[in-house]
Amino acid sequence: MSQQASILTLSQQLEGSVLTEGQARLTQLSITGGQGGPGGNGHSQGIGGTGGPGMGPTVNITAQQLNLSTLASEKASQQSRIQAAQIGSHCPPPSRIFQGRKDILDKMQDFFTLNTGIQMIYLLHGLGGAGKTQIALKFIKDSSSCFSDIFFIDTSTIATIDACLKNIAIMKGFGDSPQGGLLWLTSNVKKDWLLVFDNVDDPNINLQDFIPECDHGNIIITSRNPGLCVYAGSDSLVSDMEEKDAVTLLLKSAAQKVTGASEQTATEIVKVRY
């Protein structure tokens, strides 16, 4: 390849590259002279003269050297943080037809506003399908402004717990391990975070291994196991809805207008159900 072609190729590679100071460094590239010229005229005695001057110029170029491995690593790290943030902070909304449970929601509100200077843990326990998770989600929706960060953790298996804690670590720049997530939670004394351990139903999972060991932060646990009250400062048994709330919920879910006739029919259905 000729020198001019080499310079043109290098110029094309550099054109349009916009790098930060930490992503590029200046590098001196040198192109030496070309092939030497033909030999000089011979002397009369038959001895050849010296060679002619080189025909190619010497070119010095100052260019930015791309650190491709650094760029790729930083891009991957940024994507991981974005993905972790989307997962770690994702808290599903409550059902659009959520109804009732005001007594429990008021009790939770009072509990988490006590500001006792210790870690606040609340347990929602009851049979499967009673509405424990929905109550937790409703509370979060109504009180989200009270917390600096909200993390919703699927506690059905150790693997899902570890994955959620790992996402917290990545999102907060504390590495990429479950231990990093716990470290962020325990070290951020000034952060009024809320951690939701949802569906803690497997008796083989020791929840103590995943509760941050600190005197700050807020935790909601949903479980079928009332024995988890040992961790909680307060709790609520989630059982059947009151008849009035159940009637309203039935009419909402059936998309029926509230009339005297529809309420009477719904009440009869609810009484049979309960």
From TrEMBL:
Residues 33-55 have a biased composition (Gly residues). It comes from the Eukaryota. SUPFAM superfamilies: P-loop containing nucleoside triphosphate hydrolases. Residues 30-58 are annotated as: Disordered. PANTHER family: NB-ARC AND TPR DOMAIN PROTEIN, ZU5 DOMAIN-CONTAINING PROTEIN. This is Nephrocystin-3. It comes from Mycena sanguinolenta.
